[in-house]
Amino acid sequence: MPLLAAVAVVLGLMPLAQQASAAPTNLALNRPVTASGQELADRWGPELAVDGNAGPEGSDVAPAVHNAPDASRWSSNSADSVWIQVDLGEAATISEVNAHWGNTYPTQWSVSTSADGENWTDVVTEGAGPGVRGGWTNWTGTAEDVRYVKVTTHGRSAPWGTGLWELEVMGEAAPAPVTNLAVDRPVAASGDELPDRWGAELAVDGDSGPEGNDVPTSVHNAAEASRWSSNSADSVWIQVDLGNTAVVSEIKAHWGNTWDCCTSW
């Protein structure tokens, strides 16, 4: 389907469209997070696990690097089972959850999803595998209608808080509803019947007017009728600038007294 910045059709127009889907992105980046707790009150909070700074990689990274006061990681409360939860902001389809663990990592971890933050579905229960010191582990699959993602650990490699440098949730936001991209957008036309009424801008004002072939002519011809009345010619045109490129899926035209019906393309 073509990308259009401007659409021209004869008489009336209501381009309906939704943006093309994008490649999966990290939906957790800089999103609100909550957690079971943190090791210290003044550092290593859960928000650092979604700041985009994945930290150093490798099992040979010195503990001093993980434990630096400015290390951009979450250090959990000291327990075998801890959790961190991210609010993606809107429903999404997710395809991957990636976790980059710190110096203390889980022996198993699981992933749960929710649409409302209250009712949870286990995507994988203690089956995402063990963590890796200073390395990434991940879950891949498909989960739909997901707004909240929770990672829970089960066991830990050492008696300290579990470290998580970065949590990534890869996916796509749910498609936006189809909307009328033409409403109140700038229009141009081949001409108007009268200079003081029924201008082209009224064809995109969101007022679609009365429907039916039994609507009296006087209604169509009322001075306040919210319609475009073109110049008197067999071939006329009206054009709307959508403002940005978009994928257009439908164009609807609601005709007036000449002719009164609804058509679509």
Q: What does this 3D model show about the protein?
A:
- This protein has 265 residues and is mainly β.
- The protein folds into 2 domains: 105 residues, no CATH class; 149 residues, Galactose-binding domain-like (Jelly Rolls, Sandwich), CATH 2.60.120.260.
- The protein starts with a strand and ends with a strand.
- 3% of the residues lie in helices and 41% in strands.
- Strands 3, 4, 5, 6, 7, 8, 9 and 10 form an 8-stranded antiparallel β-sheet that branches. Strands 1, 2, 11, 12, 13 and 14 form a 6-stranded antiparallel β-sheet that branches.
- It has 2 helices and 14 strands.
- The radius of gyration is 28 Å and the shape is elongated.
Outline of the structure:
This protein is mainly beta.
The SS-based structural class is mainly beta
Q: What is the CATH topology classification name of the largest domain?
A: Jelly Rolls
- Tally of separate helices: 2
CATH class of the largest domain, anyone? Answer: Mainly Beta
Helix content: under 10%
Q: How large is the radius of gyration?
A: 28 Å
Brief descriptors of the model:
single chain, 265 residues, mainly beta, Jelly Rolls, eight-stranded antiparallel beta sheet, six-stranded antiparallel beta sheet, disordered C terminus
Write the layout of secondary structure elements.
Elements: E1 3-9, E2 14-17, E3 25-26, E4 33-35, H1 63-66, E5 74-75, E6 83-101, E7 106-114, E8 120-124, E9 136-156, E10 163-173, E11 179-180, E12 187-189, H2 217-220, E13 238-254, E14 262-264
Antiparallel strand pairs: 1-13, 2-11, 2-13, 3-10, 4-6, 5-10, 6-9, 6-10, 7-8, 7-9, 12-13, 13-14
